[in-house]
Every structure is written in structure tokens, then in C-alpha cells.
Write a structure and sequence with these properties.
560 residues, 8-stranded mixed beta sheet, globular, Glucose Oxidase, domain 1, alpha/beta, 3 domains
């Protein structure tokens, strides 16, 4: 690299006045020549608490090798990672979405404080991926995200493929009396066979796919399995590519644009991805200075078909997509169909179209993971934005695989997830009910918990297509059924969902994009006037800070 290339790290290491800084860096291995090389932060979010991230150290070492091979100087540091799968169903889940902001803040603190010239970030869980990219957009120095990769499928008692959602649903079957304890254990012991993120098109694979389509990771990053040499080779190349980005001064805000966000969400829709993508893409856009709202999600949802037969709405997992040609093969098919912007810059230093030039379209391969355009899973997007007197700022629903897209029924109102789960365990939820879980929004939770334990238990009891569920909280990417999350404004801030009473008639209509309570207007107004804002649930610590600074789910639940 030319010595006259502008580099932020010179603020830390350049000149006689920075001799003390250099002295400390020499103590961690810097050589004379390293002070004339780009200094690159390597954010390694490895954690022994979850299979999603347990192997990231191994990948980070390969990325460090790539950085050094290309003439950069790596500086590895950590950031906290929580795990949705283990925190699901209890109070720990309140920290999940909060962790996204903490991760972004942590990376900013180190990379901006050290004046790093670039950031290579490694993540493998639902919130650390958007957290990493949010930090890159915020700091705006050249950056590349590396996904840890997907887990391999587990093997069930009958030789079938199983995954983490299989065990959540097994709990529901146990509660319904259709599976005994030994059957649950047989799935528990085999659902997660090793390192890697949850295998279906849940939030981890959704966000890794979106980030690749956005141009912030190398081709194939989202679909290469965790435990492969190919993932290690990709990681080495990511380290090299980042040094090239620094040389060319290509930054995240050159890559993250309205067009590339179009590409990201188009890919999410085609793959049948998680509703959490709505929150995370809005947050990434905001941190990158791009205007992006719920209207943009609905704009694309009206025209992009759902093509992938992937779990939770389908039968395959990411490993099957890998064998079908991987994420670039699907992107190539979408590009050929005119659904992607091919002129978007990516972290390879080339455009999306240039990256895909030699790739064979998935439609030209023998496979059945991705449906043809003339025979999609659904003709339009599987994620819909709903409005109505219960959600004036919007709610988000995933309609993939639904047998029934409309339901009117009595509201079964629960103050929080635990109360709802207890009612499900007691078999108190009946076909035709509309389950309402409130007080779980960004402020009220605080933290906007996911409801996979609730929805999986409902599905396990055979009610997945027979009841509706609405909440101001979130749903896991593993959730399926007639469910509406992100209902805004949330109950804790006086949103209409707070005014519902047990037995009120409620309609969820996915086709009309409506979420309505059928209550006499005079009675509704009487309830509104009687409502009093509750005090905060938390008064100290990170949850209290989050509740004081978080925006509505309709704005991505970002903090300011």
C-alpha cells in the first residue's frame, strides 16, 4: 500500500507525539514497518455459550492470516454475544434485541477509539450480525462481515433431518400428550450436531443472506456450512479483500444504499426469511444514513415471489441450498429475472453483476430447494405489513405456509409471555382464538422478546393453523402460523393493543393487510381515556437504558 494513502490509524500512530502509543503497540507485536500499514480491527464475537459462535476463533485466525498476507496489521478484539435459542422462553430473552445495540456500540468503541482503517467482523447469531453491520455503517471505514456459517442438519429418531425448532415443537407435542419424554430426549440429543447457526431460514440465515445480497460480505458467505474448509478459505480471502477495500477507499456507505437494501430484502423475500429482517434492515439503513421505512418493505413484498422451500415454512435447510449451488446461484437467478440491481458495489470491489458473471443460475441446476418463477411457494412476498385500529404504525406478519390467511375470533389477552405459555400448557387455548401477548415491546419488555416457545408449543398441540397470535413483541425466524408481531405503538406506550379486553372480537387478515378490533367506538374511546402509562419495568442497568432511548418497532427499534 502506498504510504501516502489517507489512513485513520495515523491519528493513533503517526508522529513524534504518538511515541507512547507506538510503545504500547510494540508490546503486542508491532514491528517498525507495521506503522506504515493499515491497522485493521478484527471483531471476533466467539463465545462458548452457543454453537452459532463457538468456532469463530478458528475463522478469525484465517481472516487474520489473510489481512497479513495482503499487507495489513490485524488487531483482534471481542464483543459480547447473547444467544436467542438458549434465552428463548424466559426473562433472558429481554436481552436479545438489546444485545444488537450493545454489539454495535462495542465495535464502535474499539474501532473508532483505535482509529482502525478497516473492520473485519465475525458473527454467527441473530443479533450479532446486524450489530456488526450497523457499527460498520456508523463508523464508515471499509468493512467486511463474515458469517460463521450454518449448522449441519441433525438426525431424528426416524432418520429425518431435524433442527433447533424440532425440539421446541417436541415440547409442544409432549404437552399435548403425543410424544413421551424419551421421544423428546431423542430429538434434544440430536437437534444440534455441532458448530454453526440454526439451519433453517430463521433469523441467522436470513440476515447472513441479506448481508451478502447487500454486498457487505463475500459471495457464498451465507451458504457455506460452518464446518467446512471452504468457509475457512472464504475467511482468508475476506481478510485479503478488506485490505484491497482500504486501498480503494470503498466504504460501507458506498455499498449500503437504497438499491442494495432493495437487493437485500428481495433476497429475504425470495428465500422466505424471518420477520426480524424488517427490524434489522431498518436499523442498518438508519446507521448508514439511508432512508428506509415500512413502506419500502411493503413495496417490494407486493412484487417479489417466495421461491425457497426452506424451513420453517418448507422442508429444507441451508445445507440443502448450499448443495443446490449456494446463495450466488439464487442471486444469479434473481438478477437474470430483473429483480436485483446489478450495478450495486460490493466488498469484492466489483458490482453485484460482476460477482455473478460466471455463476450458474439455480434454475439451471437439478434441485428442488428453489421453486421456478412460474411455480413459486407464494406469488408475492411471505412477509406482509399490516395496519388497522390495533396497529396504526404497523405490524409484521409472515404468511409462508399458511393454510388460513384470515381469522376472526375472541381475544385471549395475556400480560407477557409467561402467562400465555402457562395457559397453553393447561390446554386453555382453543381453535379460533386470537392470542394477544402484550407488554413485550421495545419499551415494555424491555427488549421485545421473541415468542418461539409460545408459537412452537401452539404448533406442537396441533393448533398452528387454527389460532391467531398478535404481540408487540417479536417472533423468532423459526416461527410459523397466523402470527403478527412488532405491533406498534406498543402497549406500554399506550398503543391500541393495550386497550383490548378478554373476549373482544379481533380480525387478522393477511390478504387485506388488516389487524382490527371490533369494539364499539364509544367504548374504545372510554378505554383510551382510562388508560394510564405504567411505570418502567426496569430502573437500572442496560435494560433501563434501552427502554429510555429505544424507538418504536416501526422505526427498527434502534436507540438514540
Amino acid at each position: 500500500m502506498a504510504n501516502d494513502t489517507p489512513r485513520k490509524s495515523k491519528l493513533t500512530t503517526g508522529g513524534m507525539g504518538r511515541a507512547p502509543n507506538r510503545a504500547m503497540l510494540r508490546a503486542v507485536g508491532f514491528l517498525d514497518e507495521d506503522f506504515n500499514r493499515p491497522m485493521i480491527g478484527v471483531a471476533d464475537l466467539q463465545s462458548d455459550i452457543t454453537p452459532c459462535n463457538v468456532h469463530l476463533d478458528r475463522l478469525a485466525r484465517k481472516g487474520i492470516e489473510g489481512i497479513r498476507a495482503a499487507g495489513g496489521v490485524p488487531q483482534r478484539f471481542g464483543a459480547p454475544t447473547a444467544t436467542d435459542g438458549i434465552m428463548m422462553g424466559h426473562q433472558g430473552m429481554r436481552y436479545s434485541l438489546v444485545s444488537r445495540e450493545v454489539i454495535a456500540d462495542s465495535i464502535e468503541v474499539v474501532a473508532a477509539g483505535m482509529n482502525h482503517d478497516g473492520i473485519l467482523a465475525f458473527g454467527g447469531c441473530d443479533k450479532n450480525m446486524p450489530g456488526c453491520v450497523m457499527a460498520m455503517g456508523r463508523i464508515n471505514v471499509p468493512g467486511i462481515f463474515v458469517y460463521g456459517g450454518s449448522i449441519l442438519p441433525g438426525t431424528g429418531p426416524a432418520g429425518e433431518d431435524i433442527d433447533i425448532v424440532s425440539i421446541f415443537e417436541a415440547v409442544g407435542k409432549y404437552q399435548a400428550g403425543t410424544l413421551d419424554e424419551a421421544g423428546v430426549q431423542a430429538i434434544e440429543f440430536n437437534a444440534c450436531p455441532g458448530a454453526g447457526a440454526c439451519g433453517g431460514m430463521y433469523t441467522a440465515n436470513t440476515m447472513s443472506s441479506a448481508i451478502e445480497a447487500m454486498g457487505m460480505s463475500l459471495p457464498y458467505d451465507a451458504s457455506l456450512p460452518a464446518v467446512t474448509a471452504a468457509k475457512e478459505r472464504e475467511t482468508f480471502l475476506a481478510g485479503k479483500a478488506l485490505v484491497s477495500l482500504i486501498e480503494k477507499n470503498i466504504r460501507p456507505r458506498d455499498i449500503i444504499t437504497r438499491k442494495s437494501l432493495d437487493n437485500a430484502y428481495t433476497f429475504v423475500l425470495a428465500l422466505g426469511g424471518s420477520t426480524n429482517a424488517v427490524l434489522h434492515l431498518m436499523a442498518i439503513a438508519k446507521e448508514s444514513g439511508v432512508e428506509w421505512t415500512l413502506a419500502d418493505f411493503e413495496r417490494l413484498g407486493q412484487k417479489v415471489p417466495h421461491l425457497a422451500d426452506l424451513k420453517p415454512g418448507g422442508k429444507y435447510v441451508m445445507f440443502d441450498l448450499h448443495r443446490a449451488g449456494g446463495t450466488p446461484a439464487v442471486l444469479k437467478a434473481l438478477l437474470d429475472a430483473g429483480m436485483l440491481h446489478g450495478d450495486c458495489m460490493t466488498v469484492t470491489g466489483k458490482t453485484m453483476a460482476e460477482n455473478l458473471k460466471g455463476v450458474t443460475s439455480v434454475f439451471k441446476r437439478k434441485q428442488d430447494v428453489i421453486r421456478p418463477l412460474n411455480n413459486p411457494m407464494h406469488a408475492t412476498g411471505h412477509i406482509v405489513i399490516m395496519y388497522g385500529n390495533l396497529a396504526p404504525e404497523g405490524g409484521v406478519a409472515k404468511v409462508a405456509g399458511l393454510k388460513s390467511r384470515k381469522l376472526t375470533g375472541p381475544a385471549r389477552v395475556f400480560e407477557g409471555e409467561e402467562a400465555c405459555f402457562e395457559a397453553i400448557q393447561k390446554r386453555e387455548i382453543k381453535a379460533g382464538d386470537v392470542v394477544v401477548v402484550r407488554g413485550e415491546g421495545p419499551v415494555g419488555g424491555p427488549g421485545m422478546r421473541e415468542m418461539l416457545a409460545v408459537t412452537a408449543a401452539i404448533c406442537g398441540q396441533g393448533l398452528g393453523d387454527k389460532v391467531g397470535l398478535i404481540t408487540d413483541g417479536r417472533f423468532s425466524g423459526g416461527t410459523h402460523g397466523l402470527v403478527v408481531g412488532h405491533v406498534a405503538p406498543e402497549a406500554w406506550t399506550g398503543g391500541p393493543i393495550a386497550l383490548l379486553k378478554e373476549g373482544d372480537s379481533v380480525t387478522i387478515d393477511a390478504d387485506a393487510r388488516k389487524l382490527e378490533a371490533h369494539v364499539d367506538p364509544a367504548e374504545w374511546e372510554k378505554r383510551r381515556k382510562a388508560f394510564k402509562l405504567p411505570p418502567p419495568r426496569e430502573t437500572r442497568g442496560v435494560l433501563a437504558k434501552y427502554a429510555k432511548t429505544v424507538r418504536s418497532a416501526s422505526e427498527g427499534a434502534i436507540t438514540f
